[in-house]
Design goal:
mainly alpha
Length: 47
């Protein structure tokens, strides 16, 4: 709900701090996804 409001009014919310925050969130999400994939791979190989 909040994200929809932000995306429908980008100029109102698109401050430099908010952009940085969103980029950090993206990095964290991709890092967590990689970590989960790595854990699965480790379990499969028995490390």
């Amino acid at each position: 709900m909040i994200m929809e409001k932000i995306s429908s009014q980008p100029l109102a919310y698109e401050t430099r701090e908010y952009r940085c925050f969103r980029e950090l969130e993206e990095l964290a999400r991709s890092y967590n996804a990689q970590k989960k994939g790595q854990e699965k791979a480790d379990r499969r190989t028995g490390i």
